[in-house]
Amino acid sequence: MLSRRLPEARAFLRQLLGRGSQQDRADAAPAASPPCRHFVKRLIGGDAASTSRAASALSAEAEAEADADAPSARVGTGGVDPVSLTVHFLRHSCGLAEADAAKAAERVLLRSTKNAHAVLALLRDTLGMSPATVARVVAAHPAVIRSSTIGAKIDFYLRELGLTAAEVRCFVLASSYRFLHAGLDGRLRPNYRILRDLLGSHENVLTAVKQSIELIYENLEVVVLPKLQALRDYGVSEDVLVKLVITHPKALVHRSSRFNEGLAAMKDFGVSPDSGMFPYAFGVFATIYQSKWDRRVENYLSLGWTEAQVKRAFIRHPYCMSVSDEKVRQLLRFLSEKLGWDPEYVASSPNILSFSYERRVLPRYKVLEILVSRGVLKNGIRMWHLRMSEKKFMENYVTRHQDVIPEVLLEAYRARTSCAVR
């Protein structure tokens, strides 16, 4: 009997709460008296508006699926539940998987999609992010879709600072949190003014920021300026400081302990603070963790070098310690086996260790080997053959001999185009 009366009961309750259809109201009209309505309110523990919101919450997901871009006037007034709207937007507009969307919705809540759509347009159209990249950014930092300042920040990076869209895109991917939370007038513009005063030109600021985006969003007064003063006290000139900030800004924004170790190392190596090599030697050392530095030294020692030779090579060409262990082994073994060069000779011109084996060392060796076999080169292959500019090498050893020895040009071409760049 209860099951037979259930439709009438439902119609009765809908009429009491003001949500019934015209037929419901006709069927339940006798029961729609104010006292009875008051009784039902007390019975269910709330008024009609509360019940309407509860019913809306149950149907919100279905409504959101039907209309992802619901007008903001309906949001928060019982039309669309913000949680369901957020999950739907994250899935269908941002491209997140269902599980990722649910997880992200715990950290951000939308009551309107208007601003969120504008943010996505900036990421896609202005910065050129692919749908997959947008999904990655939103999944990592869901708050980005609620940001009201992202447009002004992107405009600062592109127009005021002068970065390209690709560079800004890389920054957002590398540090979305910093991008979102660094204040435009509280941090970004003040940092730019500090850097402009220090480096003397917008071009220098742009060069430095491209080396380390941290310069524009870190607290420079706390992180960088004290280190610059320590370098001044150490005897570093302003010109050398500018060169250091432009070429190796990460040496100033990384851990203070490594900064102090860098100063001690420069003293040990005998690198003068006023020398032109100081910003490069200090910059390289301060940006390499001690464990990696020790591993690099051990790699040279395993190839027959002495600690004195390693030290001398670093002072002459600090970037020899930035070369991967594998590349160092490949180059030194080749130079030893094919050319007979010993560690002492290589350590005297260590910049050769930064040359590409595939794109420079091997192609030139093949050309020079032919010239040696034909008697054109009387004294063999020397270091300066590899060090000279590409233009000069082509003029002296390829173009000059291509009529008499055509295979020289052919070998050079094949070597430079058939090998991948490392």
From TrEMBL:
On whether Chaperone is a keyword of this UniProt record, the answer is no
GO molecular function terms noted in the UniProt entry: nucleic acid binding
Provide a GO biological process annotation: DNA-templated transcription termination
Query: Do the record's keywords include Transit peptide?
Result: yes
Check the record and name the PANTHER family matching this protein. Answer: CGI-12 PROTEIN-RELATED, OS07G0423000 PROTEIN
The entry's family comment says: Belongs to the mTERF family.
Name by which UniProt lists this protein: Uncharacterized protein
Organism this protein belongs to: Digitaria exilis
